[in-house]
Amino acid sequence: MVLHDKKSCFIHIPKCGGISVTRSWLAQQDKKVPFQHRNWQGGLHAEFIREGVNKGAVFNNIHATYDQLALQYPDYKYYTVIRNPLTRWESLYKHNCDEGFIVDWDIITWTRKAISSIENGAYFGTIQNLDLFEKSLVRMGSYHVMYLPAWVYYREPEVKVHKLENQTIWKELGLMKNIHHASQTQLAGYNTERVLDLIYDYYKKDFERWQMTE
Hints:
This protein is α/β, with parallel strands linked by helices. The chain has eight helices and seven strands, in the order E-E-H-E-E-E-H-E-H-H-H-E-H-H-H.
């Protein structure tokens, strides 16, 4: 998200609270058209929807990395939010359930299938309902970016990193706190150690960075 009025960019890492930040910023703007979000499509451009249920809306690309944005805005300040990689993974699972991409897999079944697929350079193994998923790709964009480790989105010290759990990004960006973006899916109790064991190697750098005190 590019905040030209503040000469700043917010690096929106998937499932790290970025939608709440975006909504808070949009609420302060005088927007004439509704915005819809989709994953990065290879540029900063947006597309105006001319027909269908989203007619009149603008799809703008989100989840850009620091490297992608800094080419256009080298003199801007950069910020991002990270979170506990385990709760981020839980959020990814709930997001897939909300979208209908998971039908009846529990989180351990999904994790086992998903991480095996991701570690082999693919992400279709994260999806159970492939027919629905295929129909949804136009509005979602490049879905694989949802699973990328957080560390690939930013560099330090070029990007100032906040933790979702600390809720410090609001003051940093001068925004009203807005944490109303929540999943419809309720996650049942599960063996967290099993899931941690499955995802730790892939997200190792994220776990190490999140555990740092600064």
